[in-house]
Design brief:
The chain is α+β, with helices and mostly antiparallel strands. It is built from 3 helices and 15 strands. The N terminus is likely disordered.
Length: 430
Amino acid sequence: MLSFIILFSAGAVCLTTAYADEEEEQEEDENDEEDEDTGDDEEEDTSSSSSSGASALLTNDKIKSSEKAKTDAEQTKAALAQGQENAKRIIASLETAKSDAQEYVTKIDGEISNIQDKIDALSANIVRIREDIAETERELEEAEKIRAQQYEYMKMRIKASYESREETIAEAIFTSKGIGELLNRSLYLNEVAAYDNKKLAEYAETVKTVNETAERLAGEEEELKDAMDEALSEETAAQALLDEKEQEVAAYTASIGDKEAQVREYQAMIAEQNSIIASMEAAIKAERERLAAEARKYGGGVFAHPCPDYTRISDEYGMRMHPTLGVELMHNGIDFAAPSGTPIYAAADGEVIGAGYSASMGNYIMIDHGSDIISIYMHASKLLVSQGEEVSKGSKIALVGSTGRSTGPHLHFGVRENGSYVNPSKYLGG
């Protein structure tokens, strides 16, 4: 994210640009950051016409630099606006997917409700069958009691017949005094035998019916149990699917929340770019109103390394895709990985034209070396110099840290030349 800070101090204009990176700075535009500079008159031309020409040239350069910074800010704003629209389209897609998942959850809920109704009906049928089985068992017990009573009755009758020597049909024939008596005695004996046979047949039929009923009910109970097991399996599978879909809905909700937060971030960044553009317009106007300016001159030569104790570069200068916003932006410096507290040194003689804090750069320092060359040091844990101070090459100016938009201790070192960022390696002998 870019944020420009315009400092007008001691008759000099310093346009300082703060930008951030997420671990290894995603500086978002190669020229958006300040457009500085203010000159302290280090060398004064003895010729007034020559001085006037130099002043006019400086003013023109600053106007061009500010106009370029404004153009860059407008381009960055357009890229952010496109990113915002992309995020909104993703949100719409996620909302559709979430709605579909919620409809599926509702459908599964209805299926689970139907399965539960089926389980309830099966449970009721099992209870009814078991009640019928219990009733059948009671009927069988009752038949057994009747059979036992009949058996006792038959034993008693046989015993009584034996004791009274109940006559047989043959005896009845030979001992009867007449045909009438014989018929009466024969009828009695037949009725007794028929009664015994009837009771025996009734018992056998009752036992058969009861046993068949018991077998049928037992079979129905097993079928109901199988149906119950199947319904329970369906319910378990449906519940698992429901849980999965509910997790999907929750994931969609979280993703939508993330994208909405991203849209808000885009909106804030676009608002910041609008502010930057307004600042650039004000700077252009102010530059056009200046009648003269004096600039320090850079003495030339290779810069001193700003972090000589840790020279490994963790992120190079150049274009790259922003890791979270998905917008291709410029990483307009180089990063040196170093522990917090490591000394940071001035790359060359110059004036501190910026020393402060921004949400993106963290604690930062900007040094004007003259000839439109500015060095920038970001994310310091502590600043050791203040704005307006003169520093010499190799003097300690700050300590490495991880302030601002940064995910780990390191020094972000940048160089601006004639209002545009350049690869710092050219000044470090690389």
